[in-house]
Amino acid sequence: MVEIMIRIIHSMESQEFFSDEFQPQKIEMLSRLSALTEIGRFYFPNVIKGDYFGHDKPSAYQGYRDICLEFLVYFYNTALKSVDDSNVSVLWKQERNFTALMFDVIEPRKRNRDYSKHLGLTIPKGQAIEDFIYENPKNINVFRS
Questions:
Q1: From CA 75, how far away is CA 33, in angstroms rounded?
Q2: In 3D, which of 59, 33, 32 has the Cα closest to residue 46?
Q3: Pick from 104, 120, 123, 102: nearest CA to 112
Q4: What is the pLDDT of residues 34-55, one digit of tens each?
Q5: pTM of the predicted model, to two decimals?
Q6: What DSSP line would sit under the chain, residue for residue?
Q7: Quick one: average pLDDT of 88-94?
Q8: Rounded Cα–Cα distance for residues 8 and 79 (Å)
Q9: Chain centre to alpha carbon of residue 59
Q10: Are 54 and 19 in contact (CB under 8 A)?
């Protein structure tokens, strides 16, 4: 999902998204985003609040859309209606919110600890740029051109 979202954003930033020649790729990216969002219903089912919202719909669509999918639907609708790059900043915010939400759902730090514990692997601890430079001040040269 993140890859498709970022491809859409970058193609908008370059204006490519809006050209006639790019329409097949645009349709492909939006179709893929839509299909993956629909598949997401199997992982993030609608929220049932007990108020019978959508009770007349098929079971997968009853209740309220999970927030994980809501970000994707909003992103899709914004990209679909975009006629210029004026929505790029909104799409970046949606992508970042989706990524942050998935980060919280997947819990990569916990997963790494679990892998380390159950598989007997040593997974390197995270290091920030400050740690990298503090370890060896010459490491700053890696970031200079």
A1: 9
A2: 59
A3: 123
A4: 999 999 999 999 999 999 999 9
A5: 0.81
A6: -HHHHHHHHHHHHTTGGGSGGGHHHHHHHHHHHHHHHHHHTTTSPPBP-SS-TTTTS-GGGSSB--HHHHHHHHHHHHHHH-SSGGGHHHHHHHHHHHHHHHHHHH-HHHHHHHHHHHH---PPPP--HHHHHHH-GGGGGGG--
A7: 96
A8: 8
A9: 25
A10: no
